[in-house]
Amino acid sequence: MDSRTEISSLGEFGLIDHLTANIEFQNASSILGVGDDAAIVDHFGRQTVVSTDMLVEGVHFDLMYTPLKHLGYKSVVVNLSDIYAMNATPTQITMSIAVSNKFSVEALDEFYEGVYAACERYQVDLIGGDTCTSRTGFVISVTALGEVAPGSFVQRSGARKGDLICVSGDLGGAFLGLTLLEREKKIFLEHPAVQPDLENEQYVVGRLLKPEARQDIIRFFELQQFLPTSMMDISDGLSSELLHITSKSALGCIIYEEKLPVHEDARQAAFKFGLDPTACALSGGEDYELLFTIRQEDHDKIVLNEQISVIGYMTEPEKGCHIYTKGGNQFRITAQGWNAFKEQ
Amino acid sequence: MDSRTEISSLGEFGLIDHLTANIEFQNASSILGVGDDAAIVDHFGRQTVVSTDMLVEGVHFDLMYTPLKHLGYKSVVVNLSDIYAMNATPTQITMSIAVSNKFSVEALDEFYEGVYAACERYQVDLIGGDTCTSRTGFVISVTALGEVAPGSFVQRSGARKGDLICVSGDLGGAFLGLTLLEREKKIFLEHPAVQPDLENEQYVVGRLLKPEARQDIIRFFELQQFLPTSMMDISDGLSSELLHITSKSALGCIIYEEKLPVHEDARQAAFKFGLDPTACALSGGEDYELLFTIRQEDHDKIVLNEQISVIGYMTEPEKGCHIYTKGGNQFRITAQGWNAFKEQ
């Protein structure tokens, strides 16, 4: 950044005008956006899907290693991921931020560059928000709206016994990216002269800092003309989300360690840190992949999609939730999600 | 409070279940609520109105004199006020909070008691949200959805030359309540033994801590079968909002000091603090009254409503925005809203 403009020099309304000056609507349903008491959305004949998430500095992100542009992008994407997880199409977002004076207008511009990049990538409209002062950290709250044909949304509760359990993409990468960046931060704080060693780690760092929402999977369902029986996005870790699906659907499940999709770069990173790649895949959060169940007769429809892995199947509730390891052992799945990791 | 339950003893999902266990939907359009990735709303044939607001501890509220139940109530009401200000009917809200460990489950129950009381009073459904940890203060983010018949929403930009400027209720009370509570806080911090002197101040304190949104005014428009030409709610102060309406409508305005509605209790409180009641009405924020303009020919329709005051009229833009004082002077209106007050 070459120059620094104080937020106070623009004032609250000047700042909002500045940050929202270039919005162009992508959706016909966006009738009225930023600049009035509320925004207007028209979803005639479609159901509106609503999701909201809050991101807090020091809890969900660390500005020491999170570029603001990536943070803006990610804060949109994590909300869109929830909309896709309902089998819906995101159409609008509102973005509220609380910032302290340590941020310049240029810093907020970077953040919003990321916000707008995500809006453009996913064809959603920013239609409102709130910008206020924070005495302490940076807090971001995003609400996403989407639309779905009546009755076509997919809940967590619809899985049936025998359904195949599937995940998109690969798992554990974001957690390994976090582990790496936390290690580099610690080294930097102790030895400021040491340069970070991020070579060959682009994949896991990218998984943490710039996740994408699985729009492609939702489009694939539409193209293949079938629906999962249940679905959710993996934000807290596969174990935790599997327990949500089984509990909401009143079933048990079996998954297979050898079927868990782990990227080769994530596997290498895990070994480097002395971590078990399977534990990272089970308990690492923030991958924003989709976890869903399908009827066995729909297996043919997904088998050629390399972005989808079948990892197990749903069982009677009495059987509980278990993983079969490569060594032939069976372990009960417990919720050791993201939060557990962070609190250790 | 007799007992204290640590939030950590419930865990995030246990806490959400605990706080949302008793939700019963009031609106047929609320299809699916808390407990999945997103909520589903059905607004067939109506337009969806969306508004969002963030409230930050130490900036928007002081927990030293704000009961949590009132805070929960107010955090809903300020959002509903924005929906009414579009001439729409609020139907759903999402509520996200970031809290530190200093809050017990019992404290959050109090907060949510207020949230649910507001939901019941205004017949809106809580359909989603996010609950997360804060390292520092309490942050609340609410998004409200509402509905309106297509094309019936009222923007800030619709005022025309000659339109009458109206406000609901009375102004300045909330600012005087804040002034009073800030004074009592200061006295308490300096002399903890001194008991607060809030006798005869219920009105102004109530205006700050438990504001109501003007649902009655929107219903009145419907009953009288006419629409304002422009409207917004008064959250930052009358001066600031008048400048928004005139700027968005590309007009000027004249208002009359003697027409400004100030409650007798607020007037007395102002005198007690050596403040000008008119300055409080112009620049004090958080009254959550409605500011709107109507065609002159609609004057008959509002004249008998004691909750509506005509305070002036819209002029050519060249004339700017002015107030005629009781003494016969004319002053330019400048934006000295809430924020300006707080920064002094």
From TrEMBL, chains A, B:
Alphabetical list of SUPFAM superfamilies matching this protein: PurM C-terminal domain-like, PurM N-terminal domain-like
Catalytic function, reaction form: thiamine phosphate + ATP = thiamine diphosphate + ADP
InterPro entries, sorted: PurM-like_C_sf, PurM-like_N, PurM-like_N_sf, ThiL-like
Identification of the protein by name: Thiamine-monophosphate kinase
Keyword terms of this UniProt record: ATP-binding, Kinase, Magnesium, Metal-binding, Nucleotide-binding, Thiamine biosynthesis, Transferase
Family: Belongs to the thiamine-monophosphate kinase family.
Documented EC number(s): 2.7.4.16
Binding site for Mg(2+) 1: T52, D53, D130
Listed Pfam families: AIRS
Additional facts recorded: Reaction mechanism of ThiL seems to utilize a direct, inline transfer of the gamma-phosphate of ATP to TMP rather than a phosphorylated enzyme intermediate.
Domain PurM-like N-terminal residues, every copy: 35-148
Taxonomic lineage from the root: Bacteria, Pseudomonadati, Bacteroidota, Chitinophagia, Chitinophagales
Binding annotation for Mg(2+) 2: D53, D82
One BP term from GO: thiamine diphosphate biosynthetic process
Chain's role: Catalyzes the ATP-dependent phosphorylation of thiamine-monophosphate (TMP) to form thiamine-pyrophosphate (TPP), the active form of vitamin B1.
Pathway note: Cofactor biosynthesis; thiamine diphosphate biosynthesis; thiamine diphosphate from thiamine phosphate: step 1/1
Amino-acid positions noted as binding Mg(2+) 3 in the UniProt annotation, renumbered to this chain: D37, D82, D233
One Gene Ontology term of the molecular function aspect: thiamine-phosphate kinase activity
Transmembrane region(s): none
Binding site for ATP: Y112, G129, D130, R156, S235
Binding positions (Mg(2+) 4): D37, S51, D82
